Amino acid sequence: MYRRGDGVPRDPAISFHWYQLAAQHGNRVAQQNLGAFYYLGYATPVDYVEAANWFRASALQGFAESQNCLAYCYLKGIGVPRDDEQAVHWARLAAEQGHPRSEALLGYLYEHGQGLPLDYVAAYAWYSRAVASGDNSDLDRLKALSAVMTRKQLDEANSLISAPALALRPGSASSIPAPRALSPNP
User: I need a surface site. Which of 87, 119, 131, 171 has the fewest CB within 10 A?
Assistant: First the structure.
């Protein structure tokens, strides 16, 4: 309300205050938004550690946007120690909920063998899921991968795109997106 000025004067400081109160009471969207405020330095000084803490609080409640933000923090070492395995863990949880940027992030991690085995088939399948979910920023990655993959690999990747077991692919344990600014309130 105060963040966007919906029916009240736009006031980032008041918005921060209300998000903080709601976040302290366990509201996962408020926790995500408070993490974004700290991450971006919106109405508060930038504090990546505090941002990661709020992303984690929300992520532990299963909020896909926060899981994606936390994955990014672990991948880049922003507010937490750099840890590819944790990045994979949080990205996978969000991707399994159909979060497009996390699907693309898993594609990236598979493509580069970061935190899990290098696997172009899985990378292609995750990038394809991200594109199917509306994230067209990885179309160039699909094209580049298809140029180096065999017909058999492409066929296998295409068969995995709609398979729910893609996340559990045997042998599996662009630029990376930054966390979104804010999540909409329900």
Answer: 171
Residues 3 and 182: beta-carbon distance below 8 Å = yes
Greatest distance between any 2 Cα atoms in the chain: 58
Percent of the chain with pLDDT over 90: 75
Chain Cα centroid distance, residue 17: 25
Assigned token pair, 175? 């630029």
Nearest Cα to 22, choosing from 2, 47, 48? 2
Residues 46, 98, 181, CA angle at the centre, nearest 5°? 20
Of 148, 147, 141, the residue nearest 125 (C-alpha): 141
Q: What is d(CA 81, CA 101) in angstroms, rounded to the nearest whole number? A: 21
Distances (CA, A) of 143 to 25, 29, 159: 46, 35, 17
Q: Which amino acid is at 65?
A: E
